[in-house]
Design a protein that fits this description.
The radius of gyration is 31 Å and the shape is globular. About 40% of the residues lie in helices and about 20% in strands. By secondary structure, it is α+β, with helices and mostly antiparallel strands. It has 32 helices and 31 strands. The two termini are about 55 Å apart. A hairpin with a 4-residue loop joins β13 and β14. The strands form 8 sheets. It has an 8-stranded mixed β-sheet with strand order 5-4-8-2-1-11-14-13, with no helix packed on it. Bound molecules: zinc ion. The site of zinc ion has 6 residues, from α8 and α9.
Length: about 1050
């Protein structure tokens, strides 16, 4: 699953709205529509029954005899087919006499408070029985099986037959599911997930004997989202039974489960229905054992009007047309798979297709106009190549005969890797080369690489439980870089961009005392969303990269091949991976206990800072120590019983020794103690030490001041002796060590000085990102101009050298010019945002040209910078012009940067106007409103406005985004992370006090961040300014 694009990125001032390609943030979810609205009409039961069984009815004349016979046999074998005659509106009957099941009804307006289930809907007798039963469990001091957070393990589903009818005209559907069950332990209860549906009939039959098992009663238990079938006798061990459930539900307006979405074609609104089951929403579309461990095979049939087509994980085997314009598609049976990867869609899209070398049919389905324009061709083409790449890399063929990519107008995530039917939100898969920047292309590419990796890591081999969601998400995120390198070998994604976009990014988060381990315990369904966060994705990916480098990439690859081969069609936990990788290492004669090493990294939160002291050595001995890195050392550790001092890691440290012209790399030194002595050969008087070669490790490195000075000297004299990734690493480490108080404030600024000679993109990018938090700490201070002046001086000469791009960029979009264009963009962004006069002039000229000619000739790759600079420098007319363009454009990527540009204004009235408009769904899409508020907060002129707006509208915002945890935490951190005065900290704490519950994790992170900001101001601000003053007068 790819989360939405990450918003937090370093435009050094609000003028810069840098699109950061690889960062897809967890803006999880659009707000659910109000429940009331979703409670539409349901199909009349009788009508639907006729429809579902129409073909049976057609043979009425012939079957009347058969029917009699069947009835006789049924009576003889005591088959009790339970039906809820009273149907949708009457109270279900309790199954007191054993013939009819008590069929529970959970109204599809079930936003009901989670209370006792269905109390009033059941007859008194059933309620009594239930009470007795609960007392019985209490006596046993056990929770009843339906009240436990996980499903009881006495049953296992082997196969599901699922027959659905989709009624697009009133957004309802009906279904019949037949589950073949294997009994592991005898029990009277069948407990499975079902949520927000109306169940009409339930039958349990023993497979072999075709005999029925009487259903005593059934009920929903909403607290755990389960449906319970209580039987009159126990199911017997090692026998297999068939559970049949007939139900109906809504095609929701909320973007989870089986939901609807729409688009406009030729002035006409068209609807589609599509599913999103991960992590716990399959239970909203059919009753099932909705935990990843319950893998089963599925055979799906979908009945729909013939004006639509239907899609699912597998290809259609047969389609049966009916006279009344309906058709039923029967799909082939799936391999063993988890419920959350099941998917289907009912739409009237068209497609283009391609076939891989191994014969996999790949289709891209989208709205007909997009297909006609060829907007899906790029995705289709790279998908074919990527399947071939993964098949070769993993040595495991793609498992299904086809893969459909479905581009939908609305989706709660950027994309979802359903097996054989992956779903993407349009702006993450459709691409029109004539208006797309490099970053947009990169973004689309990486989402596709990510989802395709999941076809192996996720779909084929599935984590046992959600605590290890990082296993699949960490791999998919890591492979975004490996797969993109395969498509564009010159881009060096894994060696370079990974550092800034993943490693540096997540170390910011994980350096807070309120972080959490990458493996997180989860029980309740409601907690599961919480584990899909940046720590799982980015720290997961960073740990995997560290593992790959200390194992060696070819051994790592072999290990992955074994892991996938051993566990295919099954589930695996992290220890399964560690064992397989340890064995692969053993085969090449190396012995590392990977589980022991990795447990420290996955079960402990945070990461270490290594300090290397070399200047007091005798006999080439250096001292290496480790401690947990935290930004605010005053904050108490989250777990007071532990204390920070007990955090230890086994660290694969590499050290290079260098002098002005030469660098030598040493083998890995495993550091596992608080402090260790190591001998380093060839350590001369003037040589420097550099730890964590190419920043493959997930930690920071600090040195004694003498060594820092030697490194700075090296960078100034000949920076190319040190690798590109190490240059970026030194910059990021220095800025963050200084921010946390481990290092004097001048060191990072001294390092920056060499940048005037730096021709590579990555170190500039690292510097620009690292400057961002510092800039936000200073941008409202009296002496800000001293800082501003210093940065401008560092940027000036490179800005002159590189100049501005021309508009012909796209012809070379995917060629090696990527690095150069990205560098130019980065430098222009720094120049314009710190006030380089030429840059401002250039931006103003381009905007004026656009307004006067009404032709947008602004180069694609810098449009966002130009728009933002124009809005901030020029008068209100420009703001109105951009506002008008925002309304008139239909291109998604363009719309977004126009909206963000509006937040760059210096005019507080305009900013207020924009904030107020942001909550109007007619004007600003719900998912974009948060971006507006966050971007206003980044603008020093708007920070207090956004902060005030956030507090005043919190109730509305929380109601809108509260369920989407990612969205909410993005908003909370986006609005608060730049607060840095005692007064603002007080405001924040008071606000949290006055607000009850919810978003607690985001708020504790916010308090910690602001406390660290305040502390930095108090302790280090003056030191920094003193050094800057001195430096500027020299
Ligand atoms: Zn994913």
């Amino acid at each position: 699953m790819a989360l939405e694009k990450r918003e937090k990125r370093p435009p050094v001032t609000p003028m810069m709205i840098e699109e950061e390609a690889a960062l897809r943030n967890g803006s999880r979810g659009l707000p659910p529509g109000p429940w009331a609205e979703a409670a539409g009409p349901r199909p009349r039961t009788t009508e639907r029954h006729i429809a579902v069984h129409k073909r049976l009815v057609l043979g009425f004349a012939v079957s009347i005899l058969a029917l009699l016979a069947v009835t006789m046999i049924a009576v003889l074998l005591s088959v009790r087919f339970e039906e809820c005659g009273a149907a949708a509106d009457g109270p279900p009957r309790a199954g007191g006499n054993g013939t009819l099941s008590g069929v529970a009804r959970q109204p599809p307006g079930a936003g009901q408070p989670l209370g006792r289930p269905e109390e009033e809907a059941r007859g008194g007798e059933a309620a009594e029985e239930e009470e007795e039963e609960e007392e019985e469990w209490q006596r046993r001091r056990e929770l009843p099986p339906w009240a436990r957070p996980r499903l009881p393990r006495h049953l296992r589903p082997l196969h599901y037959n699922l027959m659905l009818s989709a009624f697009m005209e009133n957004f309802t559907f009906s279904g019949e599911v037949n589950v073949q069950l294997e009994v592991r332990n005898a029990s009277r209860y069948i407990v499975l997930h079902a949520h927000r549906m109306h169940i009409e009939a339930v039958r349990v039959a023993e497979d072999k004997l075709a005999g029925g098992v009487r259903v005593a009663r059934t009920f929903f238990y909403p607290q755990t989202q389960v449906f319970v079938v209580v039987l009159n006798r126990s199911l017997e061990v090692q026998r297999s039974y068939n559970l049949k459930i007939i139900y109906n539900a809504l095609i929701e307006n909320e973007l989870l489960g089986f939901f609807r979405s729409s688009y406009v074609l030729h002035g006409e609104r068209r609807f589609l229905g599509v599913t999103q089951f991960s992590p716990t929403h399959a239970r909203k579309a059919f009753p099932c054992f909705d935990e990843p461990i319950y893998k089963a095979t599925f055979k799906i049939s979908i009945r729909h009007q013939a004006t639509y087509l239907s899609l699912s994980n597998m290809p259609v085997e047969t389609s049966v047309f009916e006279e009344d314009g309906w058709v039923t598609d029967h799909f082939s049976q799936t391999p063993l798979m988890s419920t959350y990867y099941l998917a289907w869609a009912v739409c009237n899209f068209t497609y283009r297709e391609t076939v891989t070398k191994s014969g996999v049919v790949v289709r891209l389905y989208a709205r007909p106009d997009a297909i006609r324009r060829g907007s899906g061709d790029y995705a289709l083409n790279i998908t074919r190549r990527l399947i071939e790449f993964y098949e070769d890399y993993f040595k495991v063929p793609y498992s299904l005969p086809k893969l459909d990519l479905l581009a939908v107008p609305k989706h709660p995530y950027a994309a979802m890797e359903n097996w054989g039917l992956s779903v993407f939100v349009e702006q993450r898969i459709l691409l029109d080369p004539s208006i797309s920047s490099i970053l947009y292309l990169l973004d689309v590419t990486m989402v596709i690489v990510h989802e395709l990796c999941h076809q192996w890591f996720g779909d084929l081999v599935t984590p046992v439980w959600w605590e290890d969601v990082w296993l699949k998400e960490g791999f998919a995120h890591y492979f975004e870089f490996i797969g993109t390198d395969y498509l564009y070998p010159g881009w060096n994604m894994e060696k370079q961009r990974f550092l800034t976009d993943v490693l540096h990014e997540v170390m910011l988060l994980d350096g807070l005392a309120s972080s959490h381990p990458v493996s997180q315990e989860v029980q309740q369904a409601s907690d599961i969303d919480r584990v899909f966060d940046w720590i799982a994705y980015k720290k997961g990916a960073a740990l995997i990269r560290m593992l790959a480098s200390f194992m060696g990439h070819s051994v790592f690859q072999m290990g992955l091949q074994d892991y996938l081969t051993i566990h295919k069609y099954g589930n695996a936990a992290r220890n399964d991976l560690w064992n397989t990788l340890s064995k692969a290492l053993k085969r090449v004669g190396k012995s590392v206990n990977i589980q022991e090493v990795m447990d420290q990294w996955t079960l402990q939160m945070g990461y270490p800072v290594i300090t290397i002291l070399g200047n007091e050595t005798t006999d080439n001995i250096i001292v290496i120590s480790q401690e947990r890195f935290v930004y605010d050392s005053d904050t108490k550790p989250k777990d007071p019983a532990r204390g920070d001092s007990s955090y230890l890691w086994q660290i694969p440290l590499t050290i290079a020794v260098g002098n002005t012209s030469h660098i030598s790399s040493e083998a890995i030194i495993w550091v596992s103690n608080k402090s260790e002595h190591h001998r380093i050969p060839a350590l001369e008087e003037a040589s420097w030490l550099l730890g964590n070669v190419n920043q493959t490790g997930y930690f920071r490195v600090n040195y004694d001041i003498r060594n820092w000075k030697l490194l700075i000297n090296q960078l100034t004299r000949n920076h190319e002796v040190i690798s590109v990734s190490n240059r970026a690493g030194l910059i990021d480490d220095a800025f963050n060590l200084a921010r946390a108080g481990y290092l004097p404030q001048n060191i990072p600024l001294e390092i920056m000085r060499y940048l005037s000679e730096e021709k590579d993109f990555l170190p500039w990018h690292a510097a620009s990102r690292a400057l961002y938090p510092l800039d936000k700490l200073l941008d409202r201070t009296e002496n800000y101009n001293i800082f501003n002046e210093y940065i401008l001086r560092q940027v000036a000469s490179m800005y002159l050298k590189l100049g501005w791009p021309t508009n012909n960029l796209n012809k070379s979009l995917v060629q090696a010019s990527y690095q150069h264009e990205e560098l130019r963009r980065e430098v222009i962004m720094l120049a314009c945002s710190f006030g380089n006069k030429h840059c401002h002039q250039q931006a103003a000229t381009l905007i004026s040209d656009w307004i006067s000619s009404n032709r947008n000739r602004i180069p694609l790759n810098v449009r966002d910078i130009v728009y933002c600079t124009g809005v901030s420098l020029m008068d209100e007319d420009v703001w109105e012009f951009i506002w008008m363009k925002f309304h008139s454009t239909t291109a998604v990527s363009e719309k977004k940067i126009l909206l963000e540009a509006l937040t760059c204004s210096d005019d507080r009235n305009l900013l207020n106007r924009l904030l107020n408009l942001s909550l109007n769904s007619e004007v600003v899409l719900d998912q974009d409103a948060i971006d507006v508020i966050i971007h206003v907060a980044r603008n020093p002129h708007g920070r207090d406005l956004a902060w005030k707006f956030f507090r005043e509208k919190w109730k509305i915002l929380n109601a809108r985004y509260g369920e989407a945890l990612f969205m909410n935490s993005k908003l909370v951190s986006g609005v608060t992370e730049f607060l840095n005065t005692e007064g603002e900290l007080r405001e924040l704490k008071n606000f949290i006090k006055s607000y009850e519950g919810g978003a607690a994790v985001s708020f504790s992170r916010a308090v910690e961040t602001v406390e660290a900001n305040v502390r930095w101001q108090r302790l280090y601000k003056e030191e920094l300014f003193q050094w800057l003053r001195k430096s500027l007068t020299q």
